[in-house]
Amino acid sequence: MRILAIETSCDDTGIAILEFNSQSQPKILADLVSSQVKIHAPWGGVVPMLAKREHQRNLLPLLKQALKESKLLKITNYKLQITNKNLNSKFKILNKILEREPELLKKIIPFLKKYQKPKIDLIAVTVGPGLEPALWVGVNFARALAYFWNLPIAPTNHVEAHLGAALAFGTESQGSAIPKNLFPAICLVVSGGHTQLILMRDFGEYRILGETRDDAAGEAFDKVAKMLNLGYPGGPAISRQAEKFKSKNQSAVFARPLVLRRRKIEISLPRPMINSKNFDFSFSGLKTAALYLTKKLTKTQLKNFTPAIAVEFQQAIVDVLVAKTIRAAKEFKAKSILLAGGVASNDRLRETLKLESEKLKTAFLVPPRNFCTDNAAMIAFTVYLKESALQKKEINKYKFDWKNIKADANLTIA
Ligand code: KG4
Ligand code: ZN
Description:
CATH class of the largest domain: Alpha Beta
Structural class: alpha/beta
Bound molecules: 5'-O-[(R)-(carboxyoxy)(hydroxy)phosphoryl]adenosine, zinc ion
CATH architecture of the largest domain: 2-Layer Sandwich
Helix content: 40-55%
Number of helices: 13
Oligomer: single chain
Strand content: 15-25%
Distance between the termini: 28 Å
CATH superfamily of the largest domain: ATPase, nucleotide binding domain
């Protein structure tokens, strides 16, 4: 079974082709991501209409490259093409499917004329949650290909796919089908758009235990990085600054609060809702506290103390995320803890949650960093897991005709 996966929920355009053999071992034939960081950086965050434009530009070159890498790109027999009477009416329907993506439409027609239908069995595409205009580009691209090549589509939930990445590529899973004895699992999904604590009783069976009431964890990283003039995306920039502080102040890292001696400025940020009884999060107060702190400093002080603020801010987020995840793991007697989403590439968070999971004797699964941020391989893998899980229950409801697929910006996992 070969799956072509498409991901355009935010500012990364992803195309992957995965092959699954009879032992369910996934083989990544191609996994390409085109990041739009440079395009959005001047605005300090993702601009949906720019993301839509960039996805339209990126999708086809990525698909071509992915097919090439997978050795599936074959030129059409031209004679055969021109004798095909149906072709023109087929292009008319393509015009309709891609009427809101004119730039993509312009490119797809010559591509489909030139190349044969590749040996793919299924198209997987992220349908939500995400930025509506961005999602639609990927969804309509998938619909166009599925229609033209007569393939089924598997609509995929982006958050579930982040969890799929932890199951597929997490350290303990050795990249095969779902490892045994992982359920119930407590899953922490932290990205630019989501912060959720999810109870997974089995693959596909979810209950949201808690989520952020305001900003997502990644969003907080991005906003505070902006205050510190660290650019976008903020997460990697803040963790680099924190590393800088750590290497200069080996012993001082965990001594809180950090006090800047001469000016008696205390660098101390709150841990919002850390002791609340529920599993919800809130990061907007932390962001405001960081803003007040930066306002107290002169320009030079702000520059000098940026690494210290980064350490404290990062630690505040990690403390809250880890405390709630561990409490949930205890309460639900979790056999494993899964960490996923863009913020899961944060070293401090990975290390701390790993350590705390070990104390609980609970398995800990986190994808390698490149599978934490958005990618299409996780979309393909999740669809594969879904097929296996549903097959066991003799349900075949994950594949659909191209006509029945639509984007849903607010799609939830449960
Ligand atoms: O999952 P993702 O690629 O996209 C969404 O679905 O949102 O997550 C992107 C988010 C951004 O907010 C980025 O700042 C954050 O993940 N991020 C990090 C790190 N790397 C990426 N946050 C903290 N530390 C990191 N090392
Ligand atoms: Zn994501």
